[in-house]
């Protein structure tokens, strides 16, 4: 599969965007009143934590693929 520099840059941008947005969302979820009941994490917190973790893994993977594609396209 051949990925152009433009698509590679897009993939890198998606990876960066993921790391800009999701940690801020994580802080908002953590501070939400629904996240803890009597000091114990609720399912609201756990579900969002899993979603955030999955999004960060996927975004990181996409970003790494974008960097690799950019380097290959640059050599090409």
Structure description:
With 76 residues, the chain is mainly alpha-helical. The protein has one domain. 79% of the residues lie in helices and 5% in strands. The chain starts with a helix and ends with a helix. The mean pLDDT is 96.
* Beta-strand segment tally: 2
Count of DSSP-assigned helices: 2
Largest beta sheet: strand ordering: 1-2
As a percent range, the share of strand residues is 5-15%
Q: Can you summarize the main beta sheet?
A: 2 strands, antiparallel
In short:
With 76 residues, the chain is mainly alpha-helical. It contains two helices and two strands, in the order αββα. It is rod-shaped, with a radius of gyration of 17 Å.
């Amino acid at each position: 599969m051949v990925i152009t520099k433009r698509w590679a840059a897009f993939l890198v941008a998606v990876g960066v965007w993921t790391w800009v947005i999701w940690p801020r969302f994580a802080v908002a979820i953590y501070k939400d009143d629904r996240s803890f009941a009597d000091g114990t994490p609720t399912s609201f917190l756990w579900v969002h934590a899993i979603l955030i973790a999955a999004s960060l893994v996927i975004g990181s993977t996409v970003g790494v693929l974008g960097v690799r594609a950019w380097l290959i396209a640059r050599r090409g």
